[in-house]
Amino acid sequence: WDDEHEVVIIGSGFAGLAAAIESTRQGAKDVAIFEKMAMFGGNSTLNAGQACFTGTALQKKHNIQDSPEMMVADQLKSGRGYASKELLTVSAELGDYCYQLTKDCGSVYRDHIITTGGHSATRAHQVVERSGAGIIQPMLKTARKLGVKTVTRHKFEHLIRDKKGRVIGVQIRKGYHFGHEDSGEIINVKAQRGVIIATGGFGYNIALRQAQDPTLTAEVGCTNAKGATGDGLIEMMAAGATPLHLAFIQSGPWASPDEGGFGYGAGFSLYNFPHSIAIDRNTGQRFMNEIADRKTRADLEIQRRDKDGNPNPALLIAPKHEAKNDPSMEHVLEYNVAWEFESVEAIAKHFDVPLKPLKQQIADWNGYIDTGVDPQFGKRMDAARGVKLTPPFIVQRLWPKVHYCQGGIQINRKAEVLAAKTGKPIPGLFAAGEVTGGIHGVSRLGACATPECLAFGVVAARSVMEA
Ligand code: ADP
Question: What residue stretches are annotated with the FAD-dependent oxidoreductase 2 FAD-binding domain (predicted)?
Answer without folding.
Answer: 7-448
